[in-house]
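[Q] Does anyone have a clean structure-token version of this?
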Amino acid sequence: MEAFFCLARCRFTRLMVAMQLVMGVLVICISMASLHRFYTTDPLLPGLDDSAHCAKLHTAGADGYASFDMRALSDRVDDVLVQLAELQDKLEATALKIGKKAKKAKAHKQQQENMTLPEFRRFLEEEVIHPLYGAHISLRLIRIPRPDPEGEDDAAPEVDPLVNFFMAEETRKYVTTKGNREGRPSVYGTNRTASCSGGCDPLPRRRCLTRASKLFNRTLPINESLWKLPDDGNVRWTRYHCRGYKCLSARNPRPGYTRCVGCFDMDREKQRWMVNTTRRNASSTSALSLVDFSIDEVLAVKPGEVRIGLDVSVGTGTFAARMRERGVTVVSAALNLGAPFAETVALRGLVPLYATMSQRLPFFDNTMDLVHTAGFFEGWVDLQLLDFVLFDWDRVLRPGGLLWVDRFACARRDLDDYMYMFLQFRYKKHRWVVSFKSKEEVYLSALLEKPPRS
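[A] Here you go.
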């Protein structure tokens, strides 16, 4: 407490000068470290003075470091240096402005205006901490090729460059699977994630006529279809374990799917994302309920501004149905993970988007008011894949658009890594809640706003 009040009594100009000195030293250190790393490469590439190793460095193919994008890595470091230089210039300009105001007030014998603690805190967060955090994130995302210390001399180095993972060899990487984090099973039940869901089949496969149910009946009107299960005859059940919606009930111990159990029980679905009266009772509020945001709470953040959105979840379109009741059009990304999720979304009168997380979203830049995800991304997703997905979400979100992360579950030891991935975009935090799921797992729920960028 004494240190805090001491900081409050310090003159703001002296604090700015101290920050300038710190930023200057930081820029010099990073520059020297970059030069040392790229021009004195013995620690990075042992045996570089050997002609064989030197030739291996410039050899094309799978061996050596030829596939590593040094230009992308250099651009990332340059970007960090530019951010630090801009921050130093901003601090210098602020200190100069404060000095001019002090001289002017002294000349006119006026009392000098002092910055209040809330204003000072806001200045530090917006002008100092956020730029430094952005530079920190950029440095953490850099991956350098590392030679295997226990391998043979001729063994190829382990290359894991995030800076060019989704740039080089786009075609090959699009059709190959990617491993999950620590080999954990994904929502598909596999330890690797495919880049396509069937839409990347060869062209002759696309020219086949689509089969449908022979018992297809007339669909329900929109007012009835939102909260009523479709007719069994409107779904082709040959690809699923069950042969009807009654079999998909949560009371069935073997429904044929493991994700979003209960999504086909409409009475249960009607309660999701709604205001819980017991939750409002202070005596019954639990830590787990804090991670559950209601739709009305989210829409109140941007009243009248949320019109269209994307829901990336495992479900039957309940989120889109609730949004439709409030005049918001939401496209639901739906995959048939052992049950007819996509067909059910469409038969409820909603729009299903049949696409995996590895595919680029078929939306133009800066068009969506809202992106919502729930029950889909969890602690199994690899950071490289998550980085690709988040950048695509950022692309389609308009300035001022909302990213709603709904109960993202991960291990406690991995929470910092996933938090870095979400915070690297420097979105404005409207809500940010972390709650325990179990002793070793946590939930993360967040409501973030995309900043305007020119």
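[Q] Thanks! Anything notable?
[A] The chain has a mean pLDDT of 75.
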